[in-house]
Each structure stands twice: as C-alpha cells, then as structure tokens.
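My convention is simple: the sequence line spells out the residues, with the fold written below as integer tokens. I include a record here:
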Amino acid sequence: MLDDHRLVATLAENTGLRRKWAVTIVGDHLYIEADGSTLDGEVVRSRLEEP
C-alpha cells in the first residue's frame, strides 16, 4: 500500500486525460517521474485478513 498522501496528491494535481509516468521500484520504495518532476515514496506492506 502506498501511504504517502503528499505523493498521491502531487500525482493527482494533473487532471489531463493522458499521463506518462516512469516508475522505478527499489525494495519498498517507489520513484516516479511525472510531468518533469521526480517523486518518491515508501510502500508499506500489509496483509488482508480473511473474514
């Protein structure tokens, strides 16, 4: 799960119909190049429990 509100909010700022992102995953970290900016955030692993 990506639990980085700043990263998600920045990606959501572009409301255009087409977006081009370059995504690199290193361990539990994402690096995203979007609209000429490089963003990064931690991926938090979690498990869903069965009911």
